[in-house]
Amino acid sequence: FYILVILFAQMFFSLFCRTILCRPRSLYSELERAISNHEFVPYAQPIMNATTKELVGLEILMRWEHPVHGLVRPDMFIPQAERSGLIIPMTDLILKETAKQLRLYKHALPAPFHVGVNIAPQHCNSTVLSEECQRFISEVADNKIVLVLELTEREALEVSDFTHGLFQQLKSLGCKIAIDDFGTGHSSLVNLQKIDLNYLKIDQIFVKNIGIDNTSELLIDTTVEMAKRLSLSIIAEGVETEAQAEYLQKQGVDFLQGFLFSKPIPLEEFLQNHALKLEKQ
Ligand code: C2E
Ligand code: MG
Ligand code: MG
Ligand code: MG
Q1: Sign of CA dihedral 246, 249, 250, 251
Q2: Residue 202's beta-bridge partner residues?
């Protein structure tokens, strides 16, 4: 009986170690290793003018090219990267690579060309972000490329004096600010007003329910009206069907993003394809 108890205790202990202790720690060291190995790469998804369906910009989405596990999606590693602060050097890598690629293909891009980059809550309390943005702007060396910082709603919640100053500085550099996943967090309008916003991105949850759920449509319509009154441009995310695109355009949404136009693909491939298409025209 005692042997059984000891065995169970051991099993429980090792299970506890693996799930609670070891896994996050090993992910942490994996992330550290991957940073020095430059395994984080920028993928890109186009953003289109809702009326003309012309390309106006793109969003950079991070992917992990893991030597063993292959392509890893952000949900698997961004939360841990944000909690540990490693998101800062990871974003640094992504911004450097993005600037390098854009510089090579800038002749083929329309003006202005918006480049959305997702930033983490940690960036809002650090001076690193404005240094990185400054470097990005000087590296692409083309003022038709506009850097848009995408902040998800939950991060916009607490706007400290520091954050307020940081955003003012970023704006003076020429960056624009977008609120991502709008409608899924708890931002009050008072808080949103504190940041001088440019874009509002309607979350894909609402877009998915167009034609299915009246409440989602109502929320879209109200959001669009509010955004217009605040002079914000609106981007709808997760557009997968022509019917959704048409509905959103009719309601006054300015820009569309989603699988209807393209899935995220490697930035380099995206820029190459785009340049080739222009040459053929
Ligand atoms: P997000 O910024 O809201 O990005 C949009 C997500 O929706 C992307 O997922 C994109 O692939 C997906 N998506 C786009 N169009 C469609 C569509 O038509 N249908 C569906 N079902 N999905 C669509 P992804 O690439 O997996 O990224 C997930 C989230 O991870 C992002 O959400 C963003 O919050 C975060 N993330 C991605 N890259 C970065 C990064 O570099 N830094 C930080 N801090 N977070 C990042
Ligand atoms: Mg985003
Ligand atoms: Mg989003
Ligand atoms: Mg999201």
Answers
A1: positive
A2: 182, 236
- ipTM associated with this complex: 0.98
Q: Among 61, 207, 265, say which to mutate for ligand 1: greatest number of ligand atoms within 8 Å of CB.
A: 61
Closest residue by CA, ligand 1 atom 19: 238
What Rg value do the Cα atoms of the chain yield, rounded?
21
Contact criterion met (CB below 8 Å) for 75 and 118:
no
For residue 265, is pLDDT > 90?
yes
Residue 120: phi, psi to the nearest 5? -100, 160
Return all residues near 271 (Cβ < 8 A) that are at least 6 apart: 44, 101, 102, 104, 105, 108
Residue nearest to atom 12 of ligand 1 (CA): 238
Share of the chain above pLDDT 90, in %: 76
Exposure of 158 in the CB half-sphere (CA atoms within 13 A): 7
State if residue 78 touches ligand 1 by the CB under 6 angstroms criterion: yes
Nearest ligand 1 atom to the CA of 119 is 44
pTM, entire model: 0.91
| Atom of ligand 1 lying closest to residue 123 CA | 44
- How would residue 18 be classed by pLDDT, with cut points 50, 70 and 90? low
Ligand 1 site, residue 210, Cβ cutoff 6 A: no
72 SS3 class: strand
How far does the chain reach from its first CA to its final CA, in angstroms? 80
